[in-house]
Amino acid sequence: MRSSYPYVKFITLCTISLLLSSFIIPNLMANADNIIRRDIDEGISTAAQIFKIQSSLIPPPDNLNVRSYVLMDAKSGIIIAEKNMNLRLQPASLTKLMTLYITFQTLKTGKIRLLDDKATVSTNAWRTSGSRMFLKEGSHVPINSLIQGIVVASGNDACVTMAQYIAGSEETFAQMMNQVAQHLGMKNSHYVNSTGLPYPNHYSTAYDMALLTRALIKNFPEYYYFFSKKWLTYNNIRQPNHNRLLWRDISVDGLKTGYTKKAGYCLVASAQRKGMRLITVVFGAPTDNDRALASEILLNYGFHFYKTQRLFNAHTPIIRKRIWLGKCKYINFGTVDSLYITLPIENNKNLKATIQFLDPYLHAPIKKGQSYGIMSVTVSGNLVIKAPLMALQEDPISGLLSRVLDHIVLFLKKCLVKLL
Hints:
Number of domains: 2
Structural class: alpha+beta
Distance between the termini: 39 Å
Largest sheet: 6 strands, antiparallel
Number of strands: 17
Number of helices: 10
Strand content: 15-25%
CATH superfamily of the largest domain: DD-peptidase/beta-lactamase superfamily
Helix content: 25-40%
Radius of gyration: 27 Å
CATH class of the largest domain: Alpha Beta
């Protein structure tokens, strides 16, 4: 009987190890991962939560004659300056940026083609009020021309034609707009039409429009050139782009103006200088010149006082961690997107990155691309970035003997930690 005791103990230990490795630990890890994913999904994007940069050493921008504004860095997503950025307002023709986002998205998936596809102008589209591209009822217009008509002439007839071509009706297209807004984290936006014509339940914010613009620039660089076009000639009618900054500042290369009596003069602009790209959103200026001036002041302010640098490349190892019960033993973790940070030029030394894993003793199986921790970046103690750490490789469960040894080592380590 005594001689069989070690074997019984070994078999019992193996059975416990197998149960822990196969059922209990994976379930605990799955539940923990769901918790961290909920935390991450509350952020600005699926990659990282972005916060406003704070600096007591830099004076605020001049008192701008607008209802709301945002100054955002396009790469980092960090807010440099803002006023009433979450105030819900009518976006007027800034709405068309969402119409264009869905258009570019549909082009990228191959469902429509830029030059080959032509949309038929319906009676409803032809009769749409407001700014127009001057489409002819029943005509067949290339997608390329419609995009230019939306960007340069802010053509409501072009918007409705595009919406009907992509979704069948403008009502269905508006549903698509709201779905995209939700996906991008635009929590204070709701769309009823593709044009931005006034409607009680049609609204957005300066912050949400900055999110949308950042996504446009990041996701569709191949179509961004449309926003820098200064003129549109269609149906023998020549129309200028009303974005004054395209004419004033060579670094400005987009994006869109907007105006209604209730919304006032609005403008989303972007400029790039020395590799740094900024986004400005202005709502509710009293005149066309005021919106351009406010945007220009914000851009100059951002480029003068701040700089953006890359912290980590996408899918590049940031930290290597021990994995228990796995075949690899050690695997690398990184971020799904490249991480950038925007800092004051004169005060960029108080930068600190900390990493927190779901469990100090991570267990296999580890799935590639799944989040297992959070990296937080602070500047002078203020949180500015919070990004999920993804496993950059798989790590399946190891063999039985290896798991048994790992359990023994883990048990001893945890006992030692408690004693200390």
